[in-house]
Amino acid sequence: MSVKTRFAPSPTGYLHIGGVRTALFNWLYARHHGGTYVLRIEDTDQERSTEEAIQVILDGLAWLQLDADEGPFFQTHRYDRYREAIARLLEQGDAYHCYCTREELEAMRAAQLAAKQKPRYDGRCRNRTEPREGVEPVIRFRNPDEGSVVFEDHVRGRIRIANSELDDLVLMRSDGHPTYNFSVVIDDMDMAMSLVIRGEDHINNTPRQINIYRALGAEPPEYAHVPLIMGPDGARLSKRHGAVSVLHYRQAGFLPEALLNYLVRLGWSHGDQEIFSVDEMIELFDIGDVNKSASTFDIEKLTWLNQHYIKNADPERLVPELLWQLEHMGVTADAERDLEGIVRSLQERSTTMLEMAQGAQFFFHDFDSYHEKAAKQHLRPVVLEPMRKVRAELAALDEWNAGSVHEVINGVANALELKLGKVAQPIRVAVSGGPVSPPIDQTLALLGRDKTLERIDSAIAFIEARAAAQAG
RNA sequence: GCUCCCUUCGUCUAGUGGCCUAGGACGUCGGCCUCUCACGCCGAAAACAGGGGUUCGAGUCCCCUAGGGAGCGCCA
Fold first, then answer.
1. CA-to-C1' span, A263 to B51 (A)
2. Which residue out of A4, A116, A239, A301 is catalytically annotated?
3. Apex CA A150: angle with CA A40 and CA A97, to 5°?
4. Nearest to A442 by CA among A367, A363, A361, A387
5. With A215 labelled, which of A46, A148, A303, A391 sits at a CA distance of 20 to 30 A?
6. According to the model, what pLDDT value does residue A234 have?
């Protein structure tokens, strides 16, 4: 049987980290085995599915380059097929109309809960032959009463659930929309899935779905239920912590390769290896090596990986990412800037691309004011002399590059018998506005002579003005 | 409440009966380097949930307890 997997999100909320990891595992498994990976949108909940959510799913997966071989398929386009399957089950007696009202069902559940029983449909409509006036019926599956369902889960091993624990689930709503547990079976069957990789929250649905396959005379796919990802507080990932849209991570400056690397190591490992390129993941990933226990989302480690990938990336690769961030900050990067040079100077001091963009701002536009503490500390009258000297020598330089700039600054420090920091730091504040920047020679080289001299002049004027104000 | 699933440092994990006085990574804490911030380097603290078995020997196998998670919808 050929390998085929799918990722089947429902567009009722954001595509979050947990969903992305499920998609990644399915994608890796298919790629590893040279199989097919399909994307299917489970949009049978008309109430809550939104176009916006669909777009976020598509954009998120595209950003991560988790490309599907088939799809996206939409369940709402397959209603004829579901109706056909329902007709068959009805005819076989494996499904029946249920005329219970929502109120009745609620009362039933309340009573069961009060009696400390597991709330479940009691099958009261199983043998009803007459319709009920004014009630649009749902169609329920007639679950087997006896025996149990056993399946071999690829991550958990054998799982057995007694049919007596299962009730007659709704296959078709009264408004004609199929429910998840039904459409998922029909689709996985029609699309010939070989392995269903999904979250652990679906374990309890699996036996019901297997019963439906059997009633339809089909062999169910194999299953792999991967552990859930928890938030820092140990509870399932939710809106409160990491369950924001994956696109949020893009905005926050994370690289797709870092996010994927982080996610693949959540629940899966290959010895002590921490860094995996996508090709390595494909080569080494095995669903059987996935852990059974839930793991906690740790932004610190993701950040470390992101830093690692930024640090080791080809500068050219990072230029578009930097531009993207700058654009979102409303900063226009003029073309004559040495963008690769800027990236190179910031690579090993940025943990995210957002941070890099922030650190690069002063290369692209003047700042309104100095970092207060830095100015107080470094833009003082004592630095006027070295600053003027540096300014004069820089202005006289034949060649403007990191090497020549370096010589000037070092030379001035030596001539004045000052430590390098006493000269470099005031200039850093003068040109960048704050206390942090790449090495001063690189910074000035990248900034260019005109801007450098201009900002040093401004700083000198600033110091003089402040001194005058204090004296007066 | 019932059913199912899970349990190694704070976190992600290695470990498949002896190689474990439990290894790696993130984070944390010290130190070195240094023009800032970083990078890098060196070092430290830090875990087998508890209790019973099985075995010559248990982190590794079995049972119980505790803790955590999930499911129990005309949501997916």
1. 36
2. A239
3. 65
4. A363
5. A46
6. 66
b/e sequence A39-51, b meaning 16+ C-beta within 10 Å: bbbbbbbeeebee
Reply yes or no on whether the pLDDT at A352 is more than 70: yes
Average confidence (pLDDT) over A308-329: 96
Q: How is residue A261 written in tokens?
A: 């690397």
Complex confidence, ipTM: 0.94
B35 nearest neighbour residue (CA to C1'): A421
Q: Please state, in angstroms and rounded to a whole number, the distance separating the CA atoms of residues A94 and A86.
A: 9
Residue A12 has pLDDT above 90, yes or no: no
Cβ contacts of A329 within 8 Å, gap of 6 or more:
A357, A358, A361
Write down the pTM of the prediction: 0.93
Confidence of residue A237 (pLDDT cuts 50, 70, 90): low
Q: Where are the beta strands (DSSP E) in A343-387?
A: none
Q: How far apart are CA A216 and CA A94, in angstroms?
A: 9
Nucleotides of B under 7 A from a protein CB: 1-8, 10-15, 23-27, 34-40, 68-76
Q: What pLDDT, on a 0 to 100 scale, did the predictor assign at position A3?
A: 96
Q: Which residue is nearest to nucleotide B25 (CA to C1')?
A: A274
Average pLDDT, chain A: 93
- In what side-by-side order are the strands of the sheet with A70-74? A4-7, A36-41, A70-74
